[in-house]
Amino acid sequence: MPDMNGRVVLVTGAASGIGRATAACLAEAGAGVAMVDRDGPRLEETAAAIGTTGVGQPLAVVADVGDEASIAAAVASVLSRFGLIDGVATCAGIFDPEDLADIEKVELATFDRVIGVNLRGTFLTLRAALPHLGSGSSVVTVASTAGLRGHGFGPAYTSSKGGVISLTRLAAVQYGPRGVRVNCVCPGATAGEGMGAAFADPSTAESVSADLPLRRVGQAGEIGATMMSLLSAETSYVTGQVIAVDGGATVR
Ligand SMILES: NC(=O)c1ccc[n+]([C@@H]2O[C@H](COP(=O)([O-])OP(=O)(O)OC[C@H]3O[C@@H](n4cnc5c(N)ncnc54)[C@H](O)[C@@H]3O)[C@@H](O)[C@H]2O)c1
User: What is the CATH number of domain 8-246?
Assistant: First the structure.
């Protein structure tokens, strides 16, 4: 496990699934963790479950990543508590079942809602946090294998994740000269409690697994461990990369 002592990482979408697992890994490795989510009660419960580490209790900040003022205020709260931010993990995201249709059948409101969290929310989080990141800092965005393939997860979700991948590469180029690394993780089917609930269902997991080289779905902790590695100094020469954590799905 990388040593994260002394690092302060802001994790969005931290109340559930991949964000929660990332926050838990980071806290265990000694990082100061600022957990951001729009679901206040669940966020408090998750922060309490992580408990006090060497650097104290995680900070729980209720914020909507798609709202400019809300995420800016969240970043200000993190700076006020910890005095710095040197890691950002953008895990907040949504999937809307109404998006699971051919392009011509998807309502504009559905498209805007999904883009508003997944792409606009990632942009707003990066825009608020990047000015505070110094040399040695690391950002990890979360896209999806849907951003790499046209495998049918809906036009809004697919294009939101493609946008996150492109934004990540651009951020790596723009902020590399300041010593800030920016990488993107693309999870495949990952069991969890929110968006990953379907893959936690044994019969769905079994049918999805049949097509995967590793023959099983992923666990949120496996994505969290990859996120933490990219946030740590162990990967100090890795930037602008898009890393699928998908049991080999995208090599087919
Ligand atoms: N689970 C999977 O199979 C899978 C696969 C590929 C990509 N992903 C991506 O991983 C990320 C996390 O997915 P997950 O499975 O952990 O989902 P999840 O539903 O368990 O967690 C998402 C969290 O984001 C929060 N959130 C949603 N909108 C928000 C907003 N506007 N502001 C702040 N918080 C908000 C939710 O409250 C929730 O706590 C998402 O970006 C998702 O697209 C997941």
Answer: 3.40.50.720
